[in-house]
Amino acid sequence: MIDTQESAILFQAEDKIFLLDIPYSIAIAQGNIAPCKQLEPTTAEPSLKTQENKSQRKQLLSCSPAKEPFPSTEPKKPNARAKVLESTPISERRFHSELILPLVRDSLETIRAGIDGDRWCFTRVVPCEEVNEYMVPDQPPSRKRRKGNDSTFLQPGPDGHAKVLDKPPVILSSAVPNIFETLSELNVTKNPSPEAAVIQIGTSHETTGEYLVPPESSFILCELPIFKGPDYRAAHELPIPGLSQKFNLILMDPPWPNRSVRRSGHYTTNHYSEMDILTEGMREILQAYSYRHEDMTQLAEPQGGSQIQSQQSIAAIWITNAEKSRKAAYHAMSGAGFHVCEEWVWVKTTQHGQPISALDGLWRKPYEILVIGKRELNVDALSSAHETHDLTAVSEAIATRRVIAAVPDLHSRKPNLRSIFEKIFFSSGSSHESYTALEVFARNLTAGWWACGNEALKFNARECWVDDTTKNWIPE
Fold this sequence. Notes:
Layout: E1 9-13, E2 17-20, H1 22-28, H2 48-53, E3 58-60, H3 78-87, H4 90-114, E4 125-127, H5 150-153, E5 170-171, E6 178-180, E7 188-190, E8 197-202, E9 207-213, E10 218-220, H6 229-234, E11 249-252, H7 259-264, H8 275-289, H9 293-296, E12 314-319, H10 323-335, E13 338-348, E14 367-375, H11 379-387, H12 391-397, E15 400-406, H13 418-425, E16 427-428, E17 431-432, E18 437-440, E19 450-452, E20 465-467, E21 473-475
Parallel strand pairs: 2-15, 5-7, 6-8, 10-19, 11-12, 11-18, 13-15, 18-19
Antiparallel strand pairs: 1-2, 3-20, 4-21, 7-10, 8-9, 12-14, 13-14, 16-17
């Protein structure tokens, strides 16, 4: 795997509490698409020496960090609040008030006591005029399509869905730009080089879009058959067309049903009636692409190398704060033979460490949760035992919860947790384990990982990045 010396972690306490910078975590994960972090404000015109040092570096465009918590949307009258509480299952109230809220509150205090100053993120690079809906979080997008968006180039098949054709993988060159007329020409696409590659969409005379592909990364740009129902999926040999290998880590950020997001149109989500289909689809992906015990016993240590092939089999699913999505993630994992062992809580804060909304909010909570599962040796026995637990029992049995505080970035942009996954699961003493990873429903690529989804190249578009010496941006 690609090894990076720089870190987006601003603070860490015993591998349980982290303060992470989101744009920098994504930039670091690009390998040698080199980022540059800054804790202090910069000028719009760097010195000559600074320009020379950063001439090959790029920064990820972001939005200004929240300076104050968002305006409250909570019910103001006691009767209205009581009505909301009555409609919320007791198990759900207990989960948030007894398990998550105290953990989050104590973790934020630990971070405040452990950092120098009161700044909870690196300085960000934002456009001169922060008016593009792509750059402003929590605002509905305009009808104008952003040039270079993946969906512009995906060509649907006869059933109305973009397809991955049955043809050999596209191998990219890192020495010269890789030119294609449309993104639909890309099937399974690999960059085997230790250097970044460039994809140009258009012709040699006119480029309509450009994408930066990190070293040793691969992607499949397609709409998954996961939402088409059992009959449609039964006609496909694999849950992800064109992908047949197995992975030590599978990370998913599913398009959960969300009424507010559906109304805003930020990205496609699913209706609550499709929750069972989504659960079954996630289970099928985990079953098809995760290592089982019999697979792990065949993995041998490379001769003469300090790295060893990991024998971990990890599943990670981002969920919403709705009980239905947590239940779906638990069931998808247990149905695929995974034991839910950890939950990582991403706490969203302002740039000075305040939660972006009330910790005890009823309608809006300042955190999202990543459910982590591990495949154990006796898969069948564990799966049967785990299925007998109800939602409350599984939640209370989780041995480890970690907190990752981070100032929110663009809407729907998650922190890249590669460095934390490697710290927790893929380090063996002083050595670093070699592992394979797949991100499903990805919106950006990660060096050394696979990614799939119809937005896998979204934040790898050239327009999302700037050279440090350019002047079409201002530092936050």
